[in-house]
Amino acid sequence: MNVTNVTNDIYQLSVNVEDILFEGLWEIPNGVSLNSYIIKGEKTAIVDGVCGWDGVPESLFALLDKLNIAPESIEYLIINHMEPDHSGWIEDFKKINSNFKVVCSKKSAELLEAFYGHTENIIHVTDKDTLDLGKGHILKFVEIPNVHWPDTIATFDTLTGTLFSCDAFGSFGRATSSNYDDMLSKEEIDFYEKEAVRYYSNIVAAFSMPVKKAIQKCSDLPIKIVAPGHGIVWRKNPNKIIEDYSRYASYQKGPAQEEITIIWGSMYGMTEKAVQHAIDVLEKEKIKVHVHRVPETSWGTILASAWTSTGIILAMPTYEYKMFPPLAAVLEELGKKKVQNRKAFRFGSYGWSGGAQKELDEIISKYCMNWDFLEPVEFKGRPEPKDLELITEKLRTLVGEVRELTNE
Ligand code: FEO
C-alpha cells in the first residue's frame, strides 16, 4: 500500500489487488489499484475507501499515521460510488471512528443500507451542493449516474482543480509510488493506456452513453488533476485520459480503430487450418490483427480487442447444429457490452450439418448489435483450396471496408 502526495493538502492512499477475478469475473493479469484520497482542510475528508486484501484496515491506519492523521479526526467519508471495491471497509472504519459523516448521493445511501446496514449521519448531495473543508478546499459534487452504478458522483476540489472521478477515467494495472503521469515514461503511459482500454471495455463499456454525458458535464469544470479510483493520477495532462475516454465511448457504436479481431475455436483442427490461412492473408494486408482462441482466452481480453476493432472475424465449427458453444458465449457477452456496428465475417467447418448461422443471427438480433456481415464461408470437413480462395477474397473486402470507415 502506498501513500503519495497529489497536491497541496491532498494525498493518495493506494492498494494493489492481484490474483483475483475483478468483480468475481474479470481476469486482471496486471492487477488493479484501489485508490483513496485524503483532503486535509481545517476539516479532513477521505474520498472513497480501499478495502481488503492486504491487511486493510490495519495498513490504511498505518498510512494515516504517516500523515499524522488520527482516524477519529476524519470528519467526512465521501462515497462517490457504493460498489464495495470503494466502500467495503466502512464497517472496519466504524470500529475506530464513530463520529464521521457519510457524504454521498441518495442512491448510494440506499445501497449503503442494503450492503452494510449503515443509515446514520448521512449527507445526501446533488449537483447543487458544496462542502467547505476550510483552508479554501470547497468541494463541489457532480452527479454522473451509471459511471458505473446509478449512484455515482464525482467530487471536485475547487481550490486545486482536482477531480476525484471514481470509476470514470480509471484503468487496470497495478500502481507504484510513481502513480502520476508526470512521473512516468512514454512506455509506462502506453502500458496504462492499454490497461485503460481493458478496464473500460470490461467494466464501463455498457455505460458508454452515460460516460459521454459525464464528460460533457465535467467539461464545465476547470480540471487540473484527474484522480480516479483505479489507475494513475493525471496531473501533467488531465485532458489525455478525458479524451481517451471520449474515444472509447465512441467505439461502442463504431467505427473504432483500424484493427481486426479474430475470435476463433476449433474442435479437430479443420477450422484452425482456415484461421492460419486468414492470419497469413491479413499479415500481407498489413492491418493490425488481434487473434484470440476460445475457450482458452478470457472474455476480458477478447472484449478489450473487440472494443477497439472496427472489423471482427468469427471462425468456428458448427457444434450440434449450433455455434461452437464458447464462441456463442463470448458473442453474447459482446452483445451485452454493446459492441455495435462492426464490419464482420464468419467462416468455419461443419460435419454432418450446418446450423451456426441461425444461432449467430439470433444473438446479433437479440442484442441489437447491427453487425454488417459479409457472406459466410462454410466448408464440410477440411477447407479445400477453393474455400481458402473465397476466404481470401472476403478478407480483402473486409480490410477495405475497415480502412474506408476508419480513414473517413
Ligand atoms: Fe470501482 Fe464500479 O467500482
TrEMBL record:
User: One MF term from GO for this chain?
Assistant: electron transfer activity
What name does UniProt use for this protein?
Answer: Flavorubredoxin
The family classification in the record reads: In the N-terminal section; belongs to the zinc metallo-hydrolase group 3 family.
Q: Top-down, what is the taxonomic lineage of the species of origin?
A: Bacteria, Bacillati, Bacillota, Clostridia, Eubacteriales
Under the heading CDD domains, the entry gives:
flavodiiron_proteins_MBL-fold
Q: Which residues form the Flavodoxin-like domain?
A: 260-399
Alphabetized Pfam families for the sequence: ODP
Which PROSITE patterns does UniProt cross-reference here? Answer: FLAVODOXIN_LIKE
Which species is this UniProt entry from? Proteiniborus ethanoligenes
Which Gene3D superfamilies does the entry mention? 3.40.50.360, Ribonuclease Z/Hydroxyacylglutathione hydrolase-like (3.60.15.10)
